Amino acid sequence: MAAVSEVSVNEWHLIETLGKSPTVVSVGGNVKNWATTKRLSPSADVRIDPIIEQVRSSGTKIVLPALDSARDKRSYRIECLPVVGPTGKVHAVQLWIGDPDVTPTPPRIVSGFSWLLERFVIAQTLEAALMSGVKPEDHVPERTPAEYYAKAIKFDDSEAMLAAGLNPVDDQTFDADMSVLHADGRVMRWHMWARGCVEEGERGLRLLWHDVTDTTPPRRPTLAELGMQESVKDSGIYTAVFCTQTAVLALWLPEPAPWVKWRDIPGANQVIHADDRHLLSSAQDKFNLGSTDPVHVVARLRTENDDWRPSTLRISPYPGPLTERLAIVQISPLTES
């Protein structure tokens, strides 16, 4: 029995192509639950899947001004546009199915990006940077996870994203929403979809961002969350999550230490001085043997002037499923006695 069409005529459909089988994840900015593409055909004799696959494989758009349906005795305008990720793979296609005499509205705001586990960086396209108001001349092709998380004023799934990125399972899906502050001061709501990737050179996650602010109000930090940020500033102790084997800063909880340079650094693991990075892995070795006692050390952290400032680190086991790879690190400036 043929699938019943669920296509929305004269509307943009977002179809993720992050893994083996494309699925519909948004229609007109309304998020869908990884829905099948089989119901996109407006008529039994108008096949949409081959068009999606052609755009996915070629990376070029297809425009069919009037595709005839003998069954319906009418025509459909089809436009299919690729959303290319930073490695050149097509992460999604935007599909318009409409009446021939209706001019399509501008495509939705979408971008592709990748979590590359080998170097522990997030690679992004220019389109991804533009979504938050970054000027083209200020675009940076790669960011650390901490820099990317810092875009958000509300993101409750950072741990789940870390877990998915650090232990990628081929084609495994993950999605979440994030509230992001635009450069012009407005708060946006983005939805993210991801699939695990184990291909050589792309091991990690392939991801997709979609601005859905016009259909779904952004969520904002709670008063408790805002209060926690202020108490952190008052205490002078700042908490971060580090990958212990690579010394990569994963994210701040919730505020970054103001004297530490962690944006726009040469490498994702260069927050801590090269001669001090072993302190994290040494602490992890103790935790892996069963110790839960915090490890107190002094390490040099990069400053805004690219100098190195001695700081006190209190390293504790990470209390989640990635406890063998992550640690909670409380950071405070070393005071001279």
TrEMBL record:
InterPro entries for this protein: NT_sf (IPR043519), Rv3651-like_C (IPR048578), Rv3651-like_N (IPR041458)
Give start and end of each Rv3651-like N-terminal domain: 11-104
Q: Rv3651-like C-terminal domain: which residues?
A: 232-311
Matching entries from Pfam families are given as: Rv3651-like_C, Rv3651-like_N
Its name, as the record gives it, is: Uncharacterized protein
